[in-house]
Design brief:
The protein is α/β, with parallel strands linked by helices. The chain has 3 domains: about 180 residues, FAD/NAD(P)-binding domain, CATH 3.50.50; about 80 residues, no CATH class; about 120 residues, Protoporphyrinogen oxidase, mitochondrial, domain 2 (Polyamine Oxidase, Chain A, domain 2). Helices cover about 35% and strands about 20% of the residues. It has a 7-stranded mixed β-sheet. A 5-stranded parallel β-sheet has the order 9-2-1-13-19, covered by helices on one side. A hairpin with a 5-residue loop joins strand 11 and strand 12. The protein is globular, with a radius of gyration of 23 Å. It starts with a strand and ends with a helix.
């Protein structure tokens, strides 16, 4: 493998992981071409006047022990208390007191954070996942609780045998009444289409084995358990109680990975758009790359090719050689785009009525799902609670309002000042903030954040069969595989691809199997 190169399209978690693993396990030189001016893809951290924004919120947690160790190899786990650790009661048994990774004195450190997220519905906050505690029962009311209970019992006795849609998936796990109360409207807000038009694979990958039964059992186990491990291997991902988080946001970790890659001889080029891929004898041989600043186009040969670019654009880059059916399926793939409105506040209007202590007594949530039908905001991030170091002035509250849309939408194309006016108006309308408490604001747009499970997705196997025939081409990551992966699954797809190269494995099946529930995989 001497003097061999790997062309990697995209400097997000998958692309950077592939480059790192190639340098660590082979003599193959990675060359990364990134479309934007940033490192990290949607896991980047955006800085605005000293405040930092995490696009979408990234919990550093994985059921894969190798991923957990990989992250800690890049950024060591904190071993001393932060200022707010002394205020917020958390399990600190992992902190050894050596002060080698003291977040108060160094930046290159991974924090341990409590995982708290809730649903804002009917003007009240509900635990997420839904807990059958007094607060939930009181907020919902007796009649709704009875309906939820009866519908769940019914679906346990008479489950839907053939889950044809995401709606069927949710009903089978939570009952129809709970689905209608907490899942239907929010999911349509995210995707822009009804749940009955979305394939159940989305639920299989995102919700996995979560159910009311497992939620109740986990709550009982939590009362009795003494386990303080950050790994939480036996807990459903949606039920984890703590996670790791880079001191300065997720982009900090990926920028560090990029630095290591370049230090070891890899190359990373920003503002470069791959506009062409050339093949010969079932192998990719070169890429054409456009410089987005100068407009110039260059050609680069390679021995291996990793793509994290949207599948629709990848197939377009193949040119006219693509079979008509493959082209049609690729053109029919759909995506959901994403806007974050960052607001700097004096304070939040909603009060911390929990027993959890926080700095300035703000609500303790990492994020809040906004279930209310009369506003378009989907989710609210509170960056103070992700990391206190994300906020320049600790006496302010730094939040992100998340909106889901399509690039052609009126929402996407609103001028920034109009969009901020809308965002402030919506949070004020549902009594989460006061308008006159807003100190500053910023708008960030991200395209193709969510690959959709509708459009021509049902025929995606046609694309897979076509691209898999190129033995040195590997599709990895969220957009690369058109799959709603978390960053750990994107990383695992990259690691698996590199392992295939080192072990001379030609099949791509094990890459596609990452983050697939077998029951859905076997239906294909």
């Amino acid at each position: 493998m001497e003097n061999r190169t790997a062309i990697i399209i995209g400097a997000g978690p998958a692309g950077l992981t592939a480059a790192y693993e190639l340098l660590d396990k082979t003599n193959i030189k990675p060359i990364i071409y990134e479309l934007t001016a940033d490192i990290g893809g949607i896991a980047k951290t955006v800085q605005y006047k000293g405040n930092r924004i995490d696009i979408g919120g990234h919990r550093f947690f994985s059921k894969s022990e190798s991923i957990m160790q990989w992250w800690q190899k890049i950024l060591p786990l904190q071993d001393s208390l932060t200022k707010n650790d002394s205020i917020i009661k958390r399990n600190n048994s992992h902190i050894k007191g050596r002060n080698a990774s003291d977040p108060e004195n160094i930046d290159r450190v991974m924090l341990i954070r409590n995982r708290i997220s809730r649903i804002f519905f009917l003007g009240k906050l509900f635990d997420y996942p839904i807990s059958l505690n007094f607060n939930t029962l009181s907020n919902l009311g007796l009649m709704r609780v009875i309906k939820i209970g009866l519908s769940y019992i019914k679906i346990r006795i008479f489950p839907l045998k053939d889950e044809k849609s995401l709606e069927d998936f949710f009903i089978n796990r939570f009952g129809k009444e709970l689905y209608l109360t907490f899942f239907k409207d929010y999911t349509q807000k995210v995707w822009g289409v009804p749940c009955e038009r979305i394939k159940p694979e989305w639920g299989a990958q995102r919700v996995k084995g979560l159910s009311i039964t497992k939620t109740i059992l986990d709550a009982l186990k939590n009362k009795l358990s003494k386990d303080s491990s950050i790994n939480q291997k036996d807990i459903e991902t949606s039920l984890i109680r703590q996670f790791m988080y880079p001191k300065l946001g997720p982009g900090q970790l990926w920028e560090e990975v990029a630095r290591i890659i370049q230090e070891k001889g890899g190359e990373i080029y920003l503002n470069k758009k791959v506009v062409g891929l050339t093949s010969q004898d079932k192998k990719m041989i070169e890429v054409k790359v456009e410089d987005r600043v100068s407009g110039g186009i260059t050609t680069k040969e390679g021995n291996y090719f990793f793509s994290t670019m949207p599948v629709k654009e990848l197939i377009r880059s193949f040119g006219k050689k693509v079979p008509q059916e493959v082209h049609e399926v690729a053109e029919g793939l759909l995506y959901r785009d994403f806007i974050t409105a960052g607001l700097l506040l004096r304070k939040l209007k909603i009060k911390n009525e929990t027993k959890i202590k926080t700095i300035n007594n703000i609500v303790p949530d990492n994020w809040i799902y906004i279930q209310e039908k009369d506003v378009r905001i989907g989710r609210l991030q509170i960056f103070n609670n992700w990391s206190p170091y994300m906020v320049k002035d600790k006496d302010t509250v730094w939040i992100g309002l998340e909106y889901f849309c399509n690039e052609e939408d009126e929402l996407w194309n609103k001028p920034d000042d109009s969009f901020i006016e809308l965002a402030i108006g919506e949070l004020s309308k549902i009594d989460i903030i006061e308008k006159n408490d807003v100190l500053d604001s910023v708008v960030i747009r991200m395209s193709k954040v969510y690959p959709a499970y509708f459009g021509t997705y049902e025929r995606f196997h046609i694309i897979r069969n076509y691209v898999d025939q190129f033995e040195n081409l590997f599709l990895i990551g969220r957009n690369g595989m058109h799959r709603y992966n978390n960053q750990d699954h994107s990383m695992l797809s990259a690691m698996t691809a590199v392992e295939n190269i080192t072990n001379n494995i030609k099949s791509k099946g094990n890459i596609w199997d990452v983050n697939i529930e077998k029951e859905y995989h076997e239906k294909r």
